[in-house]
Amino acid sequence: MQTEIEIKFFVASDIQEPLSNLLNSLEIISSAQVGLGNVYFDTPTLDLRRLDMGLRIRRSDNFSEQTIKCRGQVVGGLHARPEYNAPVVGELPTLVSFPDDIWPSLAARDDIQDKLVAQFRTDFERKHWLIAFEGAQIELAWDRGDIVGSLGRSEIDELELELKSGSAQALFGLAERLAGLGGVRLGAQSKAQRGYRLAGLGKPLAAQPLPDVSGLAVEACITLGLQHWQHHEQLWLESEGSERQQARQGLLQGATLLMEAAATLAVAPPWLAALLIQHDVLAQAAGEDETLLALLHHADLVRLQLAIAAWLHLGH
Question: DSSP string spanning the chain?
Answer without folding.
Answer: -EEEEEEEEEE-S--HHHHHHHHHTSEEEEEEEEEEEEEEEE-TT-HHHHTT-EEEEEE-SS-EEEEEE-S-EEETTEEEEEEEEEE--SSS--GGGS-GGGSS-HHHHHHHHHH-EEEEEEEEEEEEEEEEETTEEEEEEEEEEEEEETTEEEEEEEEEEEEEES-HHHHHHHHHHHHTTSSEEE--S-HHHHHHHHTT-SPPP---PPP--TT--HHHHHHHHHHHHHHHHHHHHH--HHHHHHHHHHHHHHHHHHHHHHTTSSS--TTHHHHHHHHHHHHHHTT-HHHHHHHHT-HHHHHHHHHHHHHHHH--
